[in-house]
Amino acid sequence: MIKKFFKYTFLFGFLSGIGVLIWLIFLYSQIRFEIEDIVDYKPRLTTQFFDKNGVHIGNIFKKEHRLFVKYQDIPPRVTEALVAIEDTNFFEHSGINYDAIMRALIKDIKAMSLVEGASTLTQQLIKTMVLTREKKIIRKIKEVLLSLRLESLLSKEEILERYLNHVYFGHGYYGIKTAAKGYFHKELHQLTLKEIALLVGLPRAPSFYDPTRNLKYSLIRANQVVNRMKKLGWINDTEYEIAINERPTIYDDTLTLNRAPYLLDHVLKELKDDVEDLYTGGYKITLTADFEAQKIAKDALKFAYERIKKRDPYPNDDKSMTKSLNGSIIVIENETGAILAMVGGIDYQQSNFNRATQSIRQPGSAIKPFIYQVALDLGYSTATSLKDIARNYKYKSTDNEEKVWQPRNYEKNFKGLIPFREALVHSRNLATINLTNDIGLDLLYKELHRFGFQDIPYNLSITLGSFGISPIDFSEKYTMFSNGGIIVKPYLIHSIEDRNNDKIIFEKEERYITSPEQTYLMTSILHDVVKKGTGRKARVKGIEIAGKTGTTNNNIDAWFCGYSPTLQGVVWFGNDDNKPMFKSETGGRAAGPAFQYFYSKWLELHPELPREFVKPQNVFEQIYDGKMEIFTKTSKVPETSSDIEIQHEYLENKGVIF
Q1: Residue 594 and which of 129, 483, 563, 642 are 20 to 30 A apart at CA?
Q2: Residues 109, 103: Cα–Cα separation, whole Å
Q3: Is residue 447 one of the residues assigned to a domain?
Q4: Pair 208, 71 in one domain
Q5: Coil/strand/helix, residue 55
Q6: Residue 293 forms beta bridges with which residues?
């Protein structure tokens, strides 16, 4: 009877064993491919943005903020600390610590529940990436099977690399490199032993041990790591004492670290259709911008903004003329078009609308240099006499009603004959309109299109800038002057480097328009605009500045577009709702001071910058009408103004207003 009992017991046990083995084989066949994502490890990685000097200015990511680090770049101390506290026999076992399992099993049986685990680092990685953290026997069996499988496919170093890059370290940081940069603002090789101990202690309970929330408990946990390393003999007494007594500095940063939001927003719009995995691909994007220049530009815009607000005669009531006042500034390198700084508003937190790239505003008189450049290229000289007289222009409105347009100068006067240079220096509307008539509207319209202007009206209002354009597009057009006749397209992205270190370098786009000699004539005039004309408030001590102001009807828009020998800046101010500002807010008074502030501060940081415009060889000087003037070979040197009799033309023209 007893023999029969043992016989059946043995048979039952044998069959049960076979059944369990078959079940394990079946279970393994079902789950064996679940570790493919660990073997072929391609985690979501954060894309980082840097300025031209390598200053980190922001991150973007999807769900998980992670910076990847290769195993060979992980300091041995990090590995030692992690293994000491989590899995001392990591380099000896095959994925499973059987002794630890037995100890945990005994405790679980005594407690009649799963109270203690015995997970190796390999198992923890499996649990994190493949399985759930629920305490069930089936999950534990899967964990064991997959751990054994993983150890047969990857080296210990590869497993550690994946573990340290993938696990959560609290505060939104995934991976130890991310945590080191976030909590301590350090690279891994710069960490102290205490900082390392704090980090490797976090994965057990990352939210609880997060040092930005519970520094006391995170330090207790770090000390446990240090004590364990001392007990194992992996650190000496001196290292132990220093680590135990150290209290690291902890930073509580936002995850995006967005220090230049208008810049980053623009980059994201530029790349959204070209880079599908922009938020997860781990790209390193280097911008043309300089973070110091960006800060100065932001301060410059705020400086001018506050001055305009103070001049508002009704600052605190419904009559306020600056309720929705805002502005933008964009600074680029003349020769390349590389954007050095771009601020799209006074306060990004109040409005993320980028007025430097998205707003469409009328340029007013800031369009005039382009009209005068057409004339210069046709053979006019900077000394040619223009007619500063008023005429009536009849036209039909949209409802077919006949109307009369009577353009006037800002000063509400006219001077008869006026030198070409003086007409632009003092932004004379009437001289500009008459110059357009002399050139011919057809030709001017064609030339402005050649310069790149779009959606411009085919009538004389074009001479007063009565059309819309964004500051960044206007910046592009102004490089015709600042870059010696070659228009360069402003660009913000210098290079994109992917996770495989493959890099794309972005280069300038340029279009030849006219010669350096011809545009130097314009630069000499625009230099006078700043020295003694409408742009005087943009003057910068110690450096030559050329530029043009722009003010639209009823002071709705105020511009200053200027440049030094190396940099170009375009500043705009106005109300977002297109309501008029106070009547004194011209381009020179409102926008000029922001330009002046930026260039003064930038010059303090970079005193090595060239200070004077270089005159091309084929530009020559000649006395004209008692004054020194400059000409090119294509300029038609006029007779002196005293020899020109035009009064009869005024009298014969019935449209003249006296």
Answers
A1: 483
A2: 10
A3: yes
A4: yes
A5: coil
A6: none
DSSP readout, 367-418? GHHHHHHHHHHTT--TT-EEEE----EEEE-TTS-EEEE----TTS---EEE
**Residue 223 contacts residue 197 (beta carbons within 8 Å):** yes
**DSSP, residue by residue, 372-385:** HHHHHHTT--TT-E
**Averaged pLDDT for residues 92-107:** 71
Number of domains in the chain: 2
Comparing 411-425, 531-545, 594-608, the range with the smallest average pLDDT is 411-425
The answer to whether residue 159 is domain-embedded is yes
What's the CA angle centered on 143, arms 140 and 145, to 5 degrees? 115
For residue 162, tell me if it sits in a domain.
yes
pLDDT digits (tens, 9 = 90+) for 131-160: 665 556 666 777 777 888 889 889 999 999
Residue 653 has pLDDT above 80, yes or no: no
Q: Are 466 and 490 in contact (CB under 8 A)?
A: no
- Answer yes or no: are the C-beta atoms of 195 and 184 closer than 8 Å: yes
Task: Report the pLDDT averaged over residues 188-198.
Answer: 98
The more confident residue out of 416 and 178 is 178
Choose one of 225, 245, 265: the last residue of a domain: 245
Residue 631 has pLDDT above 70, yes or no: yes
Assign 302 to helix, strand or coil. Answer: helix
Q: Can you give the CATH number for the domain in which 210 is found? A: 1.10.3810.10
**Pick from 245, 272, 300: which residue ends a domain?**
245
Q: Is residue 315 in a domain? A: no
Residues 70 and 202 in one domain: yes
* Structure confidence at residue 265 (pLDDT): 97
Percent of the chain residues topping a pLDDT of 90 = 72
Please state the pTM of the whole predicted model. Answer: 0.88
Q: Which residues contact 388 (CB under 8 A, 6 or more apart)?
A: 409, 414, 415, 416, 417, 418, 423, 428, 430, 431, 434
Q: How far is CA 40 from CA 36, 146, 160, 206, in A?
A: 6, 15, 14, 26
Closest CA to 429 of 365, 362, 522: 365
The residue range of the domain holding 169 is 62-245
**Do residues 240 and 369 share a domain?**
no
Angle between helices 156-166 and 76-86 (to 10 degrees): 90
CB 240 within 8 A of CB 234: no
Closest CA to 327 of 290, 293, 354: 354
Scored b (16 or more CB within 10 A) or e, 500-509 reads eeeeeeeebe
